[in-house]
Amino acid sequence: MSVRIIVADDHKIVREGLVALLHKNPRLQVVGEAEDGRQAVQLAAELHPEVVIIDIGMPHLNGIEATRQIVAEIPGVKVIALSMHSDKRFVKGMLKAGASGYLLKYCASEELLTAIQMVMNNRIYLSNDITGIVVEDYVQKLADTDASAFQALTPREREVLQLLAEGQSTRQIADSLHVSIKTIEVHRKQMMDKLGLQSLAELVKYAIREGLTSIDK
Question: How far, in whole angstroms, is CA 61 from its chain's centroid?
Answer without folding.
Answer: 24
